[in-house]
Amino acid sequence: MKRYLSLVLAMLMIVFALTGCSSNSQSSPAPTSAPAQQPAAEAPAQQPVAEPTEAPAPELDWPKQVINFVICYAAGGSQDVSFRAMLPKLEEELGVHCIVTNAEGGNTTIGIEQYNTPEYADGYTFILVNSASISANQATGLSDYDYTSMDMVGVYAKYPGEFLVVRADAPYDTIDEFIEYSNAQSTPLKMGIAAGGAIYVASEMLKAAGANLVAIEAGGGGSRMTQVLGGHIDVTSVPYTTCKEYLESGELKALCTLMRERSAAATDIPTALECGIDVVQNTMYVCFAPKGTDPAICKKLNQAFAAIAEDQEIIDISMDMLGQMPYVLSVEDSIKEMAEQRDAYMALVDILQG
């Protein structure tokens, strides 16, 4: 019995000893060599980032109905006749019928005040004036607004020149001789004008240049022609198309043009600037839209004017009726031109309203 117990105890001691060795071996593992370092993976090449692109603007669905062009002068005038002549080509370019409404009076103020309203800013009403009228109206106090009161479509033609005309038997042939002669007279020479407008400004410019003049209200261009021929006034300023037949017949003669450049139809007539007289009326025909009209519509109409200006039929009409090649400015360049003309007229405010 004792021998049996001794054997059991001896076996238990062997088991405990083996268990302790195993525990020590697990808690203190043998050192191992560090794993070999793997080369770092290369970063993937950066792909180019596409530049963001604007979605194309939807095509303008205009025009879709009749367009009304309001000319702020009487029917039969230079701007009215020349615009009506080019209208068929403009209709063809736009693809719709167009009509003309004459709203004369107040040197364009009547038409502008009637049609430059929100109800007409729908893209189907446009206002046609010449640049000198709207600039002169503000400078003379006839109106309290300028070209910025409307939305610009653009200059679509040049005015057919402002020609200073006198009777063929007048004792002067140049603007210098005219000014010299006027100062030798005991009373001022009479210049026929349309009150408050660009021609009145021209008369004040001539006086500032040294001419001894008095401005006389003489009505429209046709009326002024009659009064010059009859000797009731000594001089006036009219478009080339108004005086053309009288110049060709020898009844009148032109001293100069007040435009910045010579007329293509009368290249022998110098500008006042060429003669050393600082008088310029570089008048343009301008199309405006009532304030609040969609700018995209204004731009599309401007592009239509530019497109028809390259048509031979329009070139012929322009040369015949305006004595000028077709002349169209972009919306941006038209704004710059109008700003320059306004500033030139406003520089004379003290004289014009004094």
Commentary on this structure:
This protein has helices spanning 2-27, 78-94, 109-115, 131-140, 175-183, 198-208, 221-229, 240-249, 295-308, 312-322, 331-346, 349-352, and strands spanning 67-71, 98-102, 125-130, 151-158, 162-167, 189-193, 213-217, 235-239, 252-257, 284-289. By secondary structure, it is of the alpha/beta class. It has two domains: 67-159 and 283-352, D-Maltodextrin-Binding Protein, domain 2 (3-Layer(aba) Sandwich); 162-257, D-Maltodextrin-Binding Protein, domain 2 (3-Layer(aba) Sandwich). Strands 2-1-3-10-4 form a five-stranded mixed beta sheet, sandwiched between helices. A five-stranded mixed beta sheet has the order 7-6-8-5-9, with helices on both faces. Helix 2 (78-94) packs antiparallel against helix 10 (312-322) and helix 4 packs parallel to helix 11.
Secondary structure topology:
Blueprint: H1 2-27, E1 67-71, H2 78-94, E2 98-102, H3 109-115, E3 125-130, H4 131-140, E4 151-158, E5 162-167, H5 175-183, E6 189-193, H6 198-208, E7 213-217, H7 221-229, E8 235-239, H8 240-249, E9 252-257, E10 284-289, H9 295-308, H10 312-322, H11 331-346, H12 349-352
Parallel strand pairs: 1-2, 1-3, 6-7, 6-8
Antiparallel strand pairs: 3-10, 4-10, 5-8, 5-9
Helix pairs in contact: 2-9, 2-10, 4-11
For the structure shown, list the relevant keywords.
single chain; 354 residues; alpha/beta; D-Maltodextrin-Binding Protein, domain 2; five-stranded mixed β-sheet; 12 helices; 10 strands; globular
